[in-house]
UniProtKB/TrEMBL annotation:
Residues 18-180 form the Glycosyltransferase subfamily 4-like N-terminal domain. The lineage of its organism: Bacteria, Bacillati, Actinomycetota, Actinomycetes, Streptosporangiales. Pfam families: Glyco_trans_1_4, Glyco_trans_4_4. It comes from Actinocorallia herbida. GO terms for molecular function: glycosyltransferase activity. This is Glycosyltransferase involved in cell wall biosynthesis. Keywords: Glycosyltransferase, Transferase. It comes from the Bacteria.
Length: 376
């Protein structure tokens, strides 16, 4: 365990949801428990959601928006420059927060994509998501990626493709990020029977997906797979909320699909106990928390071979190409029709889960990284 006693660490993030915000809070708490002096810089909304200041750290509000906003971004960089001046290490999460942290300790050279770095603390950037591509947004994010690659002291990626992207752009020190899911805890006794009765599942086979209802999660592809399965399709449960809610409900009703949208749920452990198989149809993922939760629950898993998923699951899941509804339907049918295979996959998932990293592992990795950037 690397010593961080007395180290001044500034964590920078933008508007965060789901795994990213939870991960940063866990890192902040872990570093503070080891004696680091931790400050978190980010939007007030992020503080209200995650309560960093109640985790033994200092919070400083910086308006880091979730989309390009030239005047506001410049103001955020200026504010960060003052806040980061006394830090030993700056660790930013996400490409926008990362680019702003880099610019806060340097200034753009002519041409807008080179960086002349002034004296300042080392900047480590963890990339959690694939950047948008195409159009004006894609062009803007491409500039931010180059700023991070050329100006950060080090970069961590949650998936091999993000790591390779940074290397291709000239990043000097690239590594693999560790983003663990928190333990869910065991489902309450009798949860499977109680929840299946509550949901009207009866003796039907149940496929579970937990995801934000957003384009990245591939839910229209899942509905197409359900349609392809025909009358033999099992009951599909989708837990989560998001902008595609109305569109998905309309499609389910129009095609009379055996799919129930449950909305946001806080009983994922019970839902996992109630299901027979887990489906993750995402178009892209880093180290999805739900995949880790499914492995720990010992559930047979079908997921898309995208981003960090293959490295996360190893041989403990059936992987299909992202966006391929036919392959997804065939994989689900193959497991649902073969109870012995389902049992073997569940056992493989539980075994794989024993090797999943913990929050302590993540803090150990970061402490070693931080120490490696400092003199002496």
């Amino acid at each position: 365990m690397d010593d961080v006693q007395g180290m001044r660490v500034a964590l920078v993030l933008g508007l965060a949801s789901g795994g990213l915000g939870r991960h940063v809070k866990a890192v902040a708490e872990g570093l503070a428990e080891r004696g680091a002096r931790v400050a978190v810089c980010g939007p007030g909304e992020t503080e209200r959601t995650y309560g960093f200041s109640g985790a033994g750290v200092r919070f400083a509000e910086v308006d880091i928006a979730d989309r390009p906003r030239p005047a506001g971004d410049l103001a955020a960089v200026r504010k960060l420059r003052g806040l980061l001046r006394g830090a030993d290490i700056v660790h930013a999460h996400g490409v926008r927060a990362g680019a702003m942290a880099v610019m806060a300790r340097g200034r753009l050279a002519s041409g807008g994509t080179g960086l002349r770095v002034e004296a300042g603390p080392p900047v480590l950037v963890t990339l959690h998501n694939e950047a948008p591509s195409g159009g004006m947004a894609g062009a803007a994010y491409a500039v931010l990626e180059r700023i991070v690659a050329r100006g950060a002291t080090g970069v961590l990626g949650v998936s091999p493709d993000l790591e390779e992207r940074m290397r291709a752009l000239g990043a000097r020190d690239v590594g693999h990020a560790i983003v663990p899911a928190p333990p869910l805890g065991a489902a309450a006794p009798g949860a499977r029977e109680r929840l299946r009765e509550e949901l009207g599942a009866g003796d039907a086979q149940v496929v579970l997906t937990v995801a934000r209802l957003a384009p990245q999660k591939g839910l229209p592809v899942l509905l197409e797979a359900v349609s392809r399965m025909g009358p033999a399709a099992p009951l599909f449960l989708i837990a989560g909320d998001g902008p595609l809610d109305g569109e998905l409900r309309e499609r389910i009703a129009t095609a009379d699909l055996p799919v129930r949208l449950l909305g946001r749920r806080n009983d994922v452990a019970e839902l996992l106990a109630a299901c027979d198989i887990v489906a993750v149809p995402s178009m892209w993922e880093g180290q999805p928390l739900f995949v880790q939760e499914a492995l720990r629950a010992g559930r047979p898993l079908v997921a898309t071979a995208t981003g960090g998923v293959p490295r996360l699951v190893g041989d403990a899941a059936v992987l299909v190409p992202a966006g391929d509804a036919a392959a997804l339907a065939a994989a689900l049918q193959g497991i649902l029709s073969d109870p012995g295979r389902a049992v073997r996959l569940g056992a493989a998932a539980a075994q794989r889960a024993t090797a999943l990293p913990t929050d302590d592992d993540a803090v150990d990795q970061l402490a070693a990284r931080y120490r490696g950037f400092l003199p002496g």
